[in-house]
Amino acid sequence: PEFLPPLHKAGDVSGDATLSVDLERYIDARLALGAEDLYAEAVRRLERILLPRVLRHTNGNQLRAAKLLGITRGSLRTKLRELGLRIDHTIV
User: Fold this and answer.
1) Are 90 and 59 a contacting pair, CB within 8 Å?
2) CA-CA-CA-CA torsion for 85, 20, 36, 75, nearest 10 degrees?
3) Residues 85, 52: contact at Cβ < 8 Å?
4) How does residue 8 score in pLDDT terms, banded at 50, 70 and 90?
5) Residue 63, pLDDT score
6) Nearest to 62 by CA among 45, 46, 43, 85
7) Which distant-in-sequence residues (6+ apart) come within 8 Å of 29 by Cβ?
8) pLDDT digits over 18-64, tens only?
9) What are the φ/ψ torsions at residue 60 (nearest 5 degrees)?
10) What residue spans define the domains of the chain?
């Protein structure tokens, strides 16, 4: 149906191309400013977006989130702490 978003076919890299351009701009800007430790900075920025998104996907289930990320639950908790992110536990 027309109301559904188009499916990406194998080999369709339009989304990848957009992400690549955004990343290249970010890297160029940081290099122009003389950034050091760029790898760690980029990884932190990615984790700050990725970890909360995966946790939302798993409704806060850290074990499932860790499995999706390919890391241990302990590593996930450490990364969350290092980034200053916390999970609010709500009882419904």
Assistant:
1) no
2) 30
3) yes
4) very low
5) 97
6) 85
7) none
8) 888 888 999 999 999 999 999 999 999 999 999 999 999 999 999 99
9) 85, 5
10) 15-82
pTM (2 decimals)? 0.71
Write the CA distances from 63 to 48, 74, 87, 91, integer angstroms: 18, 9, 13, 18
- The label of the residue with tokens 């409704």 reads 59
Q: Which residues, including other chains, have CB under 8 Å from residue 72's CB and lie 6 or more apart?
A: 66
pLDDT attached to residue 6: 52
CATH class of this structure's domain 15-82 = mainly alpha
